[in-house]
Queue: 2 jobs
Job 1
Amino acid sequence: MTAFSPSSDQSPSNTLAPPLREGSAPMAQVATENGHPDHRMFGLATFLVADGMTFAGFFAAYLTFRAVNPLPAGAVYELELILPTINTVLLVLSSFTFHRAAKELRHDQLGACRLWLLITAGLGLAFLGGQMVEYFSLPFGLTDNLYASTFYALTGFHGLHVSLGALMILIVWWQARTPGRFTADHHFGVEAAELYWHFVDGIWLVLYGILYLL
Amino acid sequence: MTIAFPPQTSSSPPGLQPEGWLRYLSFSLDHKVIGLQYMVAGFFFYLVGGALAGMIRVELVSPISDFISRETYNEVLTLHGTVMIFLWIVPVVNGAFGNYLIPFYVGARDMAFPRLNAVAFWLIPPAGFLLIASYFIAGAAQSGWTAYPPLSLTTPAAGQVVWILSVLLLGGSSIFGGINFIATVLKMRRPGLKLMQLPMYCWAMLGTSILVVLSTPVLAGTLVLLSFDIIAHTGFFNPALGGNAVVYQHLFWFYSHPAVYIMVLPAFGLVSEILPVHARKPLFGYTTMVYSILGIVFLGLIVWAHHMFTSATPPWMRLFFTIATAFIAVPTGIKFFNWLATLWGGKIALNSAMLFSCAFIIHFVFGGITGVALAQVPFDIHVHDTYFVVGHFHYVVYGGTVFVIFGSIYHWFPKFTGRMLNEDLGRFHFLITFIGFNLCFAPQHWLGLNGMPRRVAEYDPQFTLMNQISSVGALLMAVSTLPFLINVFWSAFSGRVAGDNPWNALTPEWLTSSPPPVENWKGEAPLVQHPYGYGVTPGQIDLGAATGREIWSSGQ
């Protein structure tokens, strides 16, 4: 095949893979899942491109609002920076802890992997807690003005992603209890949750930049 | 690889999937079943959308609002646009033919994600019924398929919210489908099959799916914000609350201009499959076709503001979007001339599939020319929101895409069912569709140039005659569905038996039985490296190296 080589480095070995049907074209070096070529990571990556475009639309709307729509007089809000910065550190840290979890899994250290997964989920939940504290301490509500609405829409949509990501991490943490559910070279659930988590983390860095720093 | 075969290798346990016709009502994972599910569901919604169009044309027979009330007229035109775009054209030209053909073309036994595929289809019927039900329960949305605020904020909220929900579901379906097509074309190709050997429809679907994945999410996000404006009274797009309605237009058209290509690029691909078969000529200029599609994908993403020249667009923006739009005429023109060159000197069989395809070329050129005209600011400002735009749009989407859908049904029906459609009925269907369509939409250009606004139930009495001509055309179009339906139902049961390959075509879907077995081929998938090698010995064609001219001249 061409430059799109199959992402099969974590594929099960041939003995584990259910065999190809009689007479079917050989799908050499392609990971399989129940006899079907496994392109789930590619599919997830494509989905994240789509998801990223949703955010891109929101970012574009927010930046345009800021550029052309003046706020009502006296409604310029300086956002508190300490809490969001702590939150940013937590979320970036959680990307590293997740990376560590996946690394432990690849070295067959399931116990250590589960511990790091739990730490990652904890950091994600701490981020959400920090977000809640920030929401309750803000001097404006959802419908106060355009800036307030956009702020809540952007952080809320991102917070929804963090919540789903934390849920995914807890699910794979729970699934990892069962021996053999994830193996060193076959652990799509963990891989997928990791890619998603890095994506959510990256989106937050952009959000932090344009919402708080700009 | 020598591996022991266990007795049960099917990816789905037996018993879960019903047999026979019941498969078409089930959560089937077979791409061919899903493709036909898309097609039948889409055609049902085509009849619904057509009935709505009929109501519009009946109302417009007379200059006063006498057939239905103005509010109902607004609901009807909103439903007509939404149903036709999101429930008929996008699902059928992408979902139906894409699901049926793409796995054959790449030499796979199914799509990359069969379950996601079934989910994508089964989002459509509930979304469609939700949308139609809103008319009977709370009154449908009244703000057109564009749902521009502040209009969509001031019209009754319930219908608008249901409309948003429905479009979000359909957008989700479209994105899932797009992910599936990208993965299938890029990752599921049979070993030995190169990208530049794929049939053109694969490229069209790859380009379309890239547009779907990049632009549909933006619409989804925008509609979520719009629903906040309606439900939570935020002010994103509400000028009365300090919001910005033009931002909605930018975000909406960032999806909805590419949506035109989402509707028409697959039609380009289908026509590129039909013409070589029935003209017995290689597709002219394969390489240029591929790069034209990619060029249209890129340009299609950066021209959206040409829909907004009357929305206080700054001069630099007008300049940029006018020029970018004019550039789209280049790749489109390349494709047009490639089709003509494919026909040139061919042994053309003027059957129904070919007639519909040729009519597509004519209509699309006309719609394309009015499109380039509409991209010019001085002209656009005069005809903005007039019937000229309606005429232009329907020439592209009905005269273009719907004609291709019919042509494709005539072409692939033997593969779907194993029986031929009746040619006489097919040509009769073509004749009245062609006459009815042109009678209906050609006068609308004149109406628009003379200033008749669109989306209004009443009009100046001086436009009466032209509107009546247009309505007669619409009546013919409605009638034209009958011979088609009779043909399909009669032929499905008692048509002439088609055999595996009635057209002597070379693309892989014809190299199996009709209808094809589950998993597409009994034996190994064929490696088709020259899908358009008509009239030439296969050894003469090197699609990787040859230009279109060489293929063409060696075919003489």
Note: The two ends of chain B are 45 Å apart (CA to CA).
Job 2
Amino acid sequence: MSVLTYLIPISLTLGAVGLLGFLYTVRANQYDDPEGDSRRPLSPDWDDQPKP
Amino acid sequence: MTAQALPLRAAACPGCLAVPDPETSAQAGGVVAPRITLSLPGIHCQGCISGVESALAAQPGVHSARVNLTLKRALIEAEPGTEAEPLIAALAAAGYEARELDSDLIVASGPDAAGRALMVRLAVSGFAAMNVMLLSVAVWSGAEAATRDMFHWISAAITLPAIAYAAQPFFASAWVALRAGRLNMDVPIVLAILLSLVTSVGETAMSGPHAYFDAALTLTFFLLAGRYLDHRARAAARSAARDLTALEVPRALRREEDGTETRVALADLAVGDVIRVLPGARVPVDGVVIEGASEIDRALLTGETTPMPAKAGQQLCAGELNLTGALLLRATAVGADTSLRQMTELVAMAESGRANYAPLADAAARLYAPGVHILSALAFAGWYLYSGDLRIALNIAAAVLIITCPCALGLAVPAVTTAAAGRLFRKGLLVKSATALERLAQVDTVVFDKTGTLTDGTPLPEALDSHEPETLAVAAALAGASTHPLARALAAAIAARGIAPALVSDIREHPGYGIEGTWQGKPVRLGRAEWAGAGHSGADTATWLATPAGVTAFRFQDTLREGAAELVRVLVDDGKTVVLLSGDRSEAVQQVAEQLGIDTWRAEVSPSEKAGAIESLAQAGKRVLMVGDGLNDTVALAAAHVSISPASAADAARSASDIVLLGSSLAPIAEACRISRKATARIRENFQLATLYNVVAVPLAIAGLATPLVAALAMSTSSLTVSVNALRLGPRR
């Protein structure tokens, strides 16, 4: 059972990484326009060169 | 737009994330470049996004433009001094309807801070719930003695801080309710969370087998999910409704004693001040005309479509629109005393009547909250008397509270209203009030306003083809020089026929009368009947043209709004009573009523008579839906059981109504009625499901059979059932 001493901290750390990642996305305004963001990849604008 | 990816700063607590830090808000506040925000009610796909963004980017002075499809807005960064009007015109040319929004208001309110705070709490509770659930799996599958205690302690270490942070909205709401001596839905929630935490910590300390850490966290997570859905639906509606508040500059031109004019805020005006009202401006205060002649459009106040002549000695009301000439007014009532503000008070009074409506959720909470407490207390007392063991009795009481706790009830209403409001938003309807859908489902009588609601509110000339092309050419030349709505409609209609304006020189506008010019060496006039020499004016909305050949009348007709006929037909087929109440002249109202097949109509109704008519309908037991747009409808909108106004309506009318129609067609109202009935049916089903689940689970809990595993299973299943049921709102069309 001593393996638990590693596994539990590892699982908690991985979970915390996910949580921090989510907090980052909130902070980076990634949920302000879910509808539009889901459709922007379909737009043919800037397909040939990146947006300046 | 590169400002989107903000650097992540180390935040000590997740709560700080909810508060925008000064650095980023200064960036977003547009200190560098002025921001223009446009509302785009018509956009719906990626094609619209690129269309709008490229149309805006092509305009001079625009640095960047970004469309937010969720909020149906475009945010534009532009050079200082760039105005919104050319941008709106450019979008109109590209086929997109746009309106300017008050950028200061939107930037000041910032990103939705409350929504973000809820989302972060949801994330924290979700993260904690998943980890504790995984640890609990070990306990459920048979961990014993020291291992089980260790898992429990780790769970406690995660749960206690997570709950302390994530469940704050419930604590706050329950505290407010308890302080006011009431019970709301949050009181049993908080009690369940706290009691389960206390017993769990106690059990863990005594190496007991059962701890409810996972249940407390899952409960918080599901309830926060319901809360977040609820908030999001309402915040979207609220912000959009706020967005619609037109930018009317609350300023007036005051003539000082020395004859100069200064621009002052409305609040600084006093009775007796002399105010200049320019053509095209709204009358800022109630007053008497002392100089000048013009015509006044009272449509917003009374629903009358025909402009009224104004000359010295005439009383004007705040909110009326000055059309042709500059007027000097002596203020007779300012600020809160104006007729416009008095209307607002009537609205507040009318609204207090509607506050009696009890939402379904509150009705459920009133039954539910005391029931749960009594059951739990009975279970505690029964087990204590039976076993004499305080620990067992407390455990059972906590289990009963947790099992009965309204995960499903908390999701029952918000899940349905979110789904329904989302569906309606795609149809172009904004639901502002949380209970609007429930009330809309009960409607059996629909009252319409005419001008601006069933009709476009813009006059169109009738039977232009019966006039000589030469007459039309002269009329076009004269009309093109005026800003009067009839003249503009005439000029536009003649231009649409491909008739070029005749060569008319010396064009002068006589405020309040019409336009005069010289054509082929002879005077020509376009304007009021007596002035043009027609002698009588008659009842029709019309303008007269005097040429050397004689006098011609151009009659105007208000066109029906798109979808109006269809909507009335659907409502009548649905068995609803349709009524038309208008402040306009009898002939005009009768014509519209006959066109639409409305049997019951009344003309020349004053604002208070409208509200009175609605109240008497309500007293007769009718549930009235009022659809109106003018200031004269505001009181009626507030008095009705539920109300809808188009986006083009007056501010006050929009804020008094429960639902705002974003597009120009009326057809979505029929859809709204259908969806609202479905939504209410789903809410009822959800309550029945939640009750059914409690009927099964509560006896188990009271019998002491509700282990943490059973609680976790029951809670998840009921929440999922309710959410899935909410999504069955009928096929997407």
Note: The radius of gyration of chain A is 19 Å.
